[in-house]
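Quick start: read one record
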Amino acid sequence: MTTPRTVLVTGGNRGIGYAIAEEFLAQGHRVAVTARSGEGPEGSLTVRADVTDGASVDAAFTRVEAELGPVEVVVANAGITKDTLLMRMSDEEFDSVVETNLGGAFRVVKRASKGMLKARWGRIVLISSVVGLYGSAGQVNYAASKSGLVGMARSITRELGGRGITANVVAPGFIETDMTAALPEAQQAEYKKNIPAGRFASPNEVARVVTWVAGDDAGYVSGAVIPVDGGLGMGH
């Protein structure tokens, strides 16, 4: 039986973030999501936040704390892509992706850690990507931002591991979302050929790994990179 917790999922209005929020709700937790637009699943509290702005993140946490209590589980999932080849990538295309995906995770986790230190309990889950460890042509900015989360989680583990706080990375591969559905059939088939499992994952398969690592049973797992990629990258 898992203890009901207050959970905050960033970027919880669509795709993997939405599925993660849904799964936490199904398991009986109090769930808030941040979104720049749109809403989280029914039963969750949606708060507007821009993860590139520390004051916006702080205001979102303050509201969640007032309505649901101190945040005990934080899932840093908000992310963007601006794919293009290295030679064509502008400074802005690099900086904005790193600022959102890596800087955003930093701001969210830093704010969450205050309450976790007080409670001497916390679960930090950073949503990376197979690309962060495997690499991908045209995604220098995205891959750099996603691999940076590994160093972040491991450093947090060394800093806060003695206070009942864990920090882990979940690295999804290809997931059935609007983004993969938009790919041409031939391209989808080509990707599936390289995945030992021979298929894309459902968002729920990622969500259940996240809820497990955030739960009571995973208290001795920290600084880990958990691939959910059907064997594509296998974690490195």
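Residues 15 and 177 are 6 Å apart (CA to CA).
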